[in-house]
TrEMBL record:
Belongs to the iron/ascorbate-dependent oxidoreductase family. Pfam families: 2OG-FeII_Oxy (PF03171), DIOX_N (PF14226). The keyword Ribosomal protein does not apply. This is Fe2OG dioxygenase domain-containing protein. It comes from the Eukaryota. The lineage of its organism: Eukaryota, Viridiplantae, Streptophyta, Embryophyta, Tracheophyta. PROSITE patterns: FE2OG_OXY. The keyword Transport does not apply.
Amino acid sequence: MISAEESYGGSWEPPLVQTISSFLKESSSPEGSRNIDGMKSYAGAKELQDFRRFTGLPLIDISRLLLGEDHPERRECEREIAVAARVWGFFQIVNHGIPAGVMEKMKEEQKKVFRQPFEVKMAGGGKLHSLGANNYRWGNPMATSPRQVSWSEAFHIPITDISRIEDETLRSAIETFANVATDLTEKIAGILARDLGAGGVYFRENCTARSCYLRMNRYPPCPFSPEILGLVPHTDSDFLTIVFQDGVGGLQLMRDDGSWAGVFPNPDALIINIGDLLQAWSNGVYKSVRHRVVASSEEERLSMAFFYCPKSDTVIQSCINPSVYRNFSFREYRLQVQKDVQATGDKVGLSRFLVQAMETVNTAATQ
C-alpha cells in the first residue's frame, strides 16, 4: 500500500490522515492492536475490493409520468416505483429532467468549492461564505474508533439558503438540481402514498422548502482503503433521498442476507432511496436500506444529495394499523439519533420506536 503522504495531500484536504493515524499511532499497544483488528474485521477487505459484485438495481424511465393519469404506461411506471420501494428501498431513474450539461457543470463547480483551503472551508469563507461556518463538515467528530470515521467532507445547504450563494454558476446548477429534486420527491411520495391507499396531502403539507436540504459530498482518495470507508453504514433519517453521483462509484447497499453489493455508476441516472420516516409511515412496507460508500484509493468521488424532510414538529404516524411503530415527531427522532451517535458512535434508528420495544420498557418499569 502506498503511503498516506504519497496519495493524499493538498492545502484543501481535511486532516483525515491525522485522524486515522491518531487512532493507530501506538499499534504495538493493546489499544492500538484492537483498533487495527477492528478496522480489518469491520471493513471486510476482500468484500470491499470486489467491485465486480454489482447489484441489479431497478432502472426506471420516469418520462412516462408525463403521460395522462390513466395511460397504461404511466400506471406501469408508478407500479415499478412502488415495487422497487417495497423490494429494494433503492432504485435509479432516467429522463428525470436535469440536462447532462447542468450535471457536468455542477461537478466542475463542486470541485472548485472543495479545492478551497481547508482553513477557508472551516471558517465559512470562500465560495459559500454566505452560508456560514457551520455548514461544512468532515470526518466524524464523534468517532471513538477508526471504523466510525467517514473518509469524506461535505457542505450542508438548506434549500432556503441556495439563493444566498453569490457565485452565479454554482448557484444556478444547485438551484436546477434542487428544483427538479423537489418536484420528483413530491411526485414519488404521492405515488407511494396512493399505492397504500393513502393521499399525498400529508407530504405536501409537512415537507416544505424550509425543512429540506442538500448535501454536497466529496470523498478524497483514501490511502487506508478498503479498511476505512468513505461513509460508514447508515440509513437516512428522512422520507426520501435523491442522489446524483459521478462515474467513480463506491455506493453499496446491504442485502437481506447481510452482504454488500455495489451500485454501478450511471451518469444519466439519479438514485432514489427510502428513508426511515417513510418506512415508519408505511408501517414497514417500504424499506429504508442500510448503505455505505467505499472510498477509492486512487480517485476522488463527488455526489450531491437532496433530503426530503418534514417540519420538526411533524408527527410520524403510520398510515396502516395496527402500527409496529409508535407515533413520534421528527424532532424527537433526530434528537434520539444524535443521542445514540454521541453515546455509541453509531445510529440505532427505528428500532428505538417499535411498539414492542416500548411495551417491553413499560413492563420492566412496573416490575
